[in-house]
# Entry
Amino acid sequence: MELQAAASWLRRFLLGAATETVRLAVTGLARAGKTVFVTALAANLLAALRDPRRLSAAPAVAEGRLVSVNEAGLSVTDAPLFPLEASLAALGGGARWPEPTRRLTKLALDLELLSPLPGQFGRLVGPLRRSVRLEIVDYPGEWLLDLPLLPLSFEDWSARQLARARTFPRARFAEAWLALLAELDVQAPAEEGAMRRLAEAYAAYLRRCRDEAALADLCPGRFLNPDTWDGMAFLLFCPLPLPPAASPKAGSIWERMRAHWDEYRRRTRVEFLLPHFARFDAHVVLVDLFRALASGATSFADTQAALAAIAASLRPEPGLLARLGLERAPPRPVFCATKADYVPASQRGQLAALLRHLVGGNGAAIALAAVACTRDITLTDERGRVQDAVEGLVEGGRREAFWFAGGVPAETPEQTWFDRRYEVPCFLPPTPGSDGGLRHVNLDRVLAAALPAVFG
# Structure
């Protein structure tokens, strides 16, 4: 890492660029805690100057090589600013969780670090002083699920989604949309009102799958988080059966929706993949496995499918130029099982193992609590058996204990495991410390794994 830092410094020196920019992407499946992660990361980096123990697993911080941290402004043409002040105010003003962000936002921090050079030369000249602008980009995880769609034709995508909509539990949520399809002549002339009703019914079906069944493998992602595409005409499409003899008429609903599908994929490439995704230096993907486990076997299987698709999209596959060092290789993703504080320390290794099993080794897997809300306790049941558990505050100021009977599974559990039903509590966050930092589990490990050239 020292040689990489030295080479980076030398390139900037020769090119006259005083500051290097490092872009960290933060995303995740629904309700995984992206806003909390970004808030806690910024708060603890700012607090680490006064107490390096806040991020002791990040060598650059633990060794005192982080010299300064300041929040930086963004240009008027940049992405919307991440609401750091409002998020910190929520945590510090009554111990409540900040509002989730539902659009792409960016937070920039200006860092000054000391990077030692190796060998005799390093001993002679001392450490390099590096100026790093860390840009943290928070974007909805639903968009990540759009990447596997880019190679698909409208016919292939429609066939897959129509088949899935007739399976349990999706069929119950798809009834209204499928009823509209049953009455539809896909060869009829395209009419905006009919297309809008179909698209809205399909989007409502996706939302119900997410909100009522905790399903995660849902697309297109912009139907759930449109951001700046909200209200765009090209979002008026949904899966459609092939017309008779697979011959759509010119100007028909089927032909128009296929054109909208093609435009959706084009804009995903032009407005997300190229300007943002292709420029990320590191990727952190957050996953709430507890929600999937507690929601039953079907929800867990759907989360597993979504993670497999995400892991495949993020798999580092450097080409020849990258191997020769002439082109940046894709970053290795860091997957994080969030809410690690919902299980005692003795089970966090199993939580990380489960996540590693689900992503198939396509990146690092870490058990994470960006803000730790609980403390470990032991409970004794009526038979005298001791159970590791956690305890924290919930709504109303009550203390509540929580544990998974038998512990977190280290790989996909058998169907019988899901026969137990878990009511996962919502623990309240602690207030920030006097230095503004927040207690966490493994946030520093995530930082070091995602950006070793900066914090290693």
In short: The two ends are 7 Å apart (CA to CA). Residues 2-139+281-358+431-455 form one domain.
